[in-house]
Amino acid sequence: MCTKSRICVLSFGYVYKISENSKKICVRIKLTCTHSMYRFGCKATYSPMSQQLSIWKEQLNPMVRMHNEIVTANFGYLELNAMRIFLIMLAKLDRDAEDFTPMRISVRDIIPNYEGGTSLDYIIRACVELKSKIKDLEIHSEHNGKRRFKLMTVIDYVQYVEGTDYVEARFGVAIRPYLLQLKGNFTQAELKELLKLKSTYAIRMYMLIKSLYREGMSYETSVNDFKLMMVGNLSQYADYRNFKRLVITSPQKALEKTSSAFSFEEEKTGRNITHLRFIPLNYPQAKPSDSVLSDRLLATLEELKVNTAKIAQMLFAGEIEEGYIHFVISAKKSDIKVKKLGGAIYQAIIEKQLYDEYRTAVYKPRKVASSSPLSS
């Protein structure tokens, strides 16, 4: 067993093994890369991308957003910790950027009670699950009356270095049009509400029902298509009763007190249930509110006597980030020329007066140490 390597990296192909009597990890990572290998005494490859790594000073957006074709895409079941990594990655995106950069996710955001030990195994399992289960995301759609089928890699790579307390990952280039610079046909939801849910099926149903708020309609699908979307294959849950209980009624109960509560109808062909229809129950109430603001930020704005209705609406629509609001508050508090602080903050936020300065300050890449994170 290797005693030097303490890293789990997954990119295009991998073999990993965790010692039963040690927390140390030995990995063999196979990259689609023409660069020379960097060896430690155990078998591993070296990613040159890691040496040139630039990390943003990332802001966690309270809303996650994705194209509606991702909402209904076939990528099967993800275990909960892997789905939490995926959601937090969405919340860390600079959605106006032209490309993806590596991002870091705290292990305590993935597992709130993380203390190392056996929790380490859960983190590594989540990394493996994330990279392997949605490596080939299927999108079925129509364009100019013609059916379209597309397979693409969602996660470029994901890695965890023992002792760093973060997972590092980057989205794949093919998914860029579905996550960045979206102008329409997208769905967004509050990250804090998604992270409260205890199953991946509930999370995916939450997003599906949210997508209907923009369309103002129900979602109709065949049982087989819905099974491919949620489970990833037709062989699992061959008994419809088990499928219904785990994938439909259990999420329905989990969402009954949320904004994505739903009902559903079944349609038979002969004696078999072949089609499903999902109906959102809270469509009239699906509108932005102060709930999109974090409790701390809402309290700060109220203390400063700043009207939050328009700000919440802009945040809900994805026109601004919560980080920008904090940036404006800090800037205006330090500006000695400001006489009416609340009014100045409000105007700067809704008119996006400091948005260019904010993006320059927050999203300017900073270099990290040039040594490879694969080094011992």
Describe this structure in words.
The protein has 15 helices and 15 strands. The chain is α+β, with helices and mostly antiparallel strands. It folds into 3 domains: 7-196, Winged helix-like DNA-binding domain superfamily/Winged helix DNA-binding domain (Arc Repressor Mutant, subunit A); 212-285, Arc Repressor Mutant, subunit A (Orthogonal Bundle), CATH 1.10.10; 290-362. It has a 4-stranded antiparallel β-sheet with strand order 1-9-10-6. A 3-stranded antiparallel β-sheet has the order 12-14-13.
Strand content: 15-25%
Could you say how many structural domains there are in total?
A: 3
SSE-based structural type:
alpha+beta
CATH H-level superfamily of the largest domain: Winged helix-like DNA-binding domain superfamily/Winged helix DNA-binding domain
CATH topology assignment of the largest domain: Arc Repressor Mutant, subunit A
How far apart are the termini?
A: 14 Å
Low-pLDDT runs: 1-57, 365-376
User: Total number of β-strand segments?
Assistant: 15
* Contiguous helical run count: 15
Q: Helical percent range? A: 25-40%
